[in-house]
Amino acid sequence: MDLPRRPKHLPQVQALAAIGQCKLMAMWDQLFAHLRQPVAQILLTRNDIADRTQYINAQNTFVALLNMGVIPIVNENDTLSVQEIKFGDNDTLSAITAGMVQADYLFLMTDVDCLYDKNPRTNPDAKPIEVVEDIADITADVSSAGSSLGTGGMGTKIVAARLATAAGVTTVITKSSKPGNIASIVRYAEAQKAAQRSMEGSLELSAPSTPKKLANGEQASQDVSSTDLDGVAIPARELPAPPLHTRFLPDLHPIRDRHFWLLHGLAPHGTIYIDNGASNALSRKAGLLPVGVIDVVGDFHQHECARISVLPSRDAPLSEAEEIGRALVNYSAAEIKRIKSVQSDKISEILGYADSEYVALRENVGLFKSQNHDQRHPCRTDGSAWEG
User: Fold this and answer.
1) For residue 214, how many C-alpha atoms fall within 13 Å in the half-sphere facing its CB?
2) Which of 10, 58, 90, 366 shows the smallest number of beta carbons within 10 Å?
């Protein structure tokens, strides 16, 4: 467009985004045309998935396209997005999309080979982190600010990996300049999965089986095999070491469907602080009662999303709270402030009405995985992780 610099005003920026989308899709269409592979464009904003009906419609569209053999090209709808409804970066958008379609893998491409324990640009002794079993325990240098072309650095990729693995998606960080590495990494990961299944199966046998003999009397190999991208079996021992990458193992108890939408499809507008009793009740599948609410921060309306954070004690400072989930609330922030810490039978007396005895129904509460399950994966005896 021969512009000397990036426009400062939103309408001009969004107009350029509309022009750029045409060029971007033309490029994708041309690239995939060489493979005779049809593609489709899907543009999303946060509002598109904040509404439950629209979220399901988007999910159904993805499924229909994939069943038709069409590859969806997903991007944020920058032509319509404003700050309040933006995903913020493509890493988050890709993780939410991966969770929506229940993908097997999510690849987050970046300008380094993998995640390191230190910034490799400034620390020659930085060590690669190849497998992450529990993302909550990770200690790494994520000071990379991102590329000049992208919208996310390593920090946003860690957040995206946490989101995707919670949905049961194996997440990989690897170098964007070597896209051919993806196939090698998938082969290696699938071989490890097959090896684990074989090991688990052998432990279930009541007695060791007799090794099979070949016609020449030699013992048959019992190597676990993977398959290449054409479905041809490849023994695990013949697979070369994969390119350097970081693989985040998926949660053993993934969040699906409505709970995934509650936790990651909605943008929270405030925080409800609760006590341990209320937290335990939520873990037991009970709803959130006002008596368990300690405080409220933010400005949200009825049926909007709020964070749920638990305090170690009722007199603890809010800074000590731990976020445990999200909820669609039955009352506004102002109303919850008035009924906090009281019994439900007092709601109508205080407000003059009572839409519900609960601040949030249990079906409208999504809890993060640490509340219900141990997320750790089985390990080999040498401490290295198996794919789960």
Assistant:
1) 6
2) 10
